[in-house]
Amino acid sequence: MEEPGSAWSDLAVELVVAGYFDLWTQNLQGRSPVKLHKYRELSEATGRSVKSVERKFQNISAVLERIGLPWLPGLAPLRNYQRALIAAVEAKVERFWNFDLPHRPTKLGVSDVVVLFPEQTPTIEQPIVSESPELERLARKFDPALRDLRNRKTGLLGEELVYHSEIARLTQTGRQDLANKVKWVSQEEGDGAGYDIRSFESDGTERFYEVKTTIGHRRTPFYMTRNEKDFAEEAPYNFRIFRLYEVGRSPRSFLIAPPLDSALILEPSVYRASFG
Questions:
Q1: Domain 133-262 belongs to what architecture?
Q2: Do residues 17 and 61 lie in contact, with contact meaning Cβ atoms separated by under 8 Å?
Q3: What is the residue-wise DSSP string for 40-81?
């Protein structure tokens, strides 16, 4: 048992991190665990107060925020990066890094469709960077943009959600004629078009959506290809990035319109190497 007011032991930290990730996994699987029950359980195991356990949970949220993973609802990040805490989170993230989202049927019924109503686009802010070398190393190791790029299952789920959402939206606005023309281009024609979904506004304006999906929070970075960036510049009036986030829970979204460099910080990150 821990002495109140003393530094947290490594064992106590590991217990709390394990408890957090237990609730975190349940939440991503669509369940709604009661946090207070876990606080009390960990309070008895460690000798810490329920409030102290809750604050430690918020410290874990801050680590997840830095590496682009969603944190538990109601546990806003509290930035106090204890070295033992970072090490314990790293051990857990190793297991959950390629977390598989719950299976969705390939053909969705009417009741399965989520109509996405995009929120206001976030403004450019200073990136979240800590003063902890250990946490910055972790952020480089678990690059959230690279994780999302490699996780094709998550990407396909996002495209599927947008495709069905656009059909449902146009149908609800009385434009069944346009709903019938919505096309999942990346599935039907491949990835070379520079966008994933062709849709329409209710007035008939054509829209080309490049879908970027993450299980992380709304400011999680993402990768764009040169082809996507070029297409955005060629068709600025019609092109939009359809950003989906927190898809492991209730998907939320916003749109990004060209010029992209006015809404995003674009940094070159890959070089093409050749011999001539």
A1: 3-Layer(aba) Sandwich (3.40)
A2: no
A3: HHHHHHH---HHHHHHHHHHHHHHHHHTT----TT-------
How far is the C-alpha of 15 from the C-alpha of 10, rounded, in Å? 9
Per-residue tokens: 81? 């990066």
Q: What DSSP letter does each residue of the chain carry, written as one string?
A: -PPTTSPPPHHHHHHHHHHHHHHHHHHHTT----HHHHHHHHHHHH---HHHHHHHHHHHHHHHHHTT----TT--------HHHHHHHHHHHHHHTTPPPPP--SS--GGG------BPPPPP------S-HHHHHHHHHT-HHHHHHH-HHHHHHHHHHHHHHHHHHHHHTT-HHHHTT-EEHHHHT-GGGS-SEEEE-TTS-EEEEEEEE-SS-TT------HHHHHHHHHSTTTEEEEEEE-TTSS-EEEEE-SSGGGTS------------
For residue 94, give the amino acid letter. E
Q: Where are the domains of the chain?
A: 10-96, 133-262
Instruction: Give the tens place of pLDDT for each residue, 122-174.
Output: 887 766 777 888 888 988 888 888 877 777 888 898 999 999 999 999 999 99
The residues, any chain, with a CB within 8 Å of residue 238's CB and separated by 6 or more, are 205, 206, 207, 208
User: CA-to-CA distance for 52 and 75, rounded, in angstroms?
Assistant: 13
Question: pLDDT of 219-270, one tens digit each?
Answer: 888 999 999 999 999 999 999 999 999 887 778 899 999 999 898 988 887 7
Give me 29's structure tokens: 């699987």
